[in-house]
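batch_manifest entry 22 of 60
target: Nudix hydrolase domain-containing protein
source organism: Paludifilum halophilum
requested by: lab member K.T.
priority: normal
notes from requester: please return tokens only, no post-processing; we will run our own comparison against the previous entry in this batch. if the run fails, retry once and flag.
--- input ---
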Amino acid sequence: MGSSPRGGTILMLPKHYVAAAGIVLNENEDVLLIRRADNMHWEPPGGVVELEDGLEAAVVREVKEESGVDAEVIRLTGVYKTVGRRGFHVVSLVFLCRAVGGVLRPSEETVAAGFFSADDALNKIERERIRIRLEDALADRKTPFVRSFLTPEAK
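--- output ---
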């Protein structure tokens, strides 16, 4: 804690950023995945919530930017805090969404985008923490999951 010019104590807040991801289903209940250009991993579209974004608007924007798909939010399915190495701390909001239009295509951030059966989508996702988010969204639970992941040796 520090002190303010008026002599009070200033609370030092942790350095997190907020991300939003969409588990987007089409009319066949297939799941939208994108293949990221930076690491070649398959995952649901998503990204950082910009300062001017609303939370639901952020996920709709990210889905469109990364896949070309227009989506509408159905509900929040999970809140995930990841504490990682080298100051990487993120709170991710995951929303179940419905595809409502657009043209499926990759973007500058992605090398591929497609709809896959739930089983195929789960098998394509290599990172366990991302796979858990998809499993949670497909669980049809009425209330959102809340999970924290701590990377070993995180500070």
